[in-house]
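Lab manual, section 2.4: Encoding a predicted structure.

Procedure: take the sequence of the chain (318 residues), apply the prediction step described in section 2.3, and record the output as structure tokens. A sample record is shown.
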Amino acid sequence: MAPCRTARVDGAARVNRRHFLSGLLTVALVGCSSADTDSSPSTAETYSAALQPVSGPAGDPIRLKYGYEPDNIGDLYLPDNNATSLPVVVMIHGGGWQEDLDLSYFQQMSTAIADEGIAVWNVEYRRGPNNWANTLSDVDDATEALATVVQGAADGRLDLDRVHVAGHSAGGQLAAWVAARHLMPVDAPGAEPKIRPRSATIMAGVFDMKRAADIGGDKFVPAFLGGMPNEVPGRYKIASPIEYLPLDVPLTALHGDADRTVSVNQSRVYVDAATKAGSTDPELVVLPGAGHGAFLDPKNLAWSTALSTITGRAQTLL
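Recorded output:
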């Protein structure tokens, strides 16, 4: 069993189906105020305000479609180098699984990651109340598209044995789900994937959807899944990364201890359970004083910690 690692770094406490791809070759929140008993925004407006990205210069990505729906798109960022074998990071944005925010959420971080010599696939997906099945299907399809549409646009430069997945908030739940989907029953959305991430970075994510709804009083999770845990228990099991342990993928959970939208206990409980279950290299990094939106502010320690964690993981994949 890999132990949860513990240290101090720069003020951060470390404790440790494919429906659309054929024929397309031409071409992570959370709305959760899973703050347990110490949270929480009561409206979508409050949630969205906490997640507004800091504005910055646009990058120069390649816009691609990975499916037939309007939201089946993504931006491919390629580093300005001559490397023929690039690690690639799949970025999944947050926003409470609502339609208010889009993939521009991660534009600045995607550019910064690409500047470190790493390819980035920043994906969009269908969102909205009770749209959980489409959301999960889309992030699965977007990840699988690395082998087809995205690899084609990259002129075959992507090393698909070195895929890292990262997400914030709702996108954190989705990124952790993508990292674990190979452990799911064969009839579950995303089961038996061809593209399997080798590591994951989850920023202020919800790992236990039932805990978020029952203990945290989260309103976004039941809206996303179409009911409370006692009403649709199967959906909660499918969507909750904590249900799929031990995880054989190294995962770093980053969380601010001043997060009033998603409780740091989501990450603490997950990493503790993952460690006890014998998961591979689970790690918790608690950032003192960081709120939920800190991971979107390039001037914040949370942003630089996320950037160094993502690039460090991606660059060391073998």
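Check your result against the sample. Strands lie at 6-9, 12-15, 62-65, 73-77, 86-92, 119-123, 158-168, 199-203, 251-256, 282-287.
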